[in-house]
Amino acid sequence: xxxxxxxxxxxxxxxxxxxxxxxxEGSAYMLSLMGKKREWSxxxxxxxxxxxxxxxxxxxxxxxxxxxxxxxxxxxxxLEEGDSLWVNYTKPTEIITHFLEEICKALDRFSxxxxxxxxxxxxxxxxxxxSSTNSVNSFFKAGNKLEQPRLML
Length: 153
Hints:
Structural class: alpha+beta
Low-confidence stretches: 129-138
Number of helices: 3
Number of strands: 4
């Protein structure tokens, strides 16, 4: 989609979680989302591949970076794609709306203390730079052959 088409789609977003939205440079947008207990500030960056490719979402609440699982040190939010509305490429506004609502739900969920174990599990991969004294052996590179990875502890 072009920048103008993305702008049109995002201007039509109607959701109770979206408090504000403003255009940033290029195909990026700054948004405020109202969660259950706090306001989340995020940035969405759209690529030319949208709606076939979801936008990248970044958490701008810097005081929360390092405290939430599935948010790396650069603020990038990792959100799992589902098989619902997201595959309907003919409705980009609905894709954006659903994506924003899922981000808000996920951030609310990640902020609960019950998810701190997930943060600790991800700590080495997200926050520690590999070095001779600190190595990460938890990455798997997928290929074109069916394989079953084994976890070695």
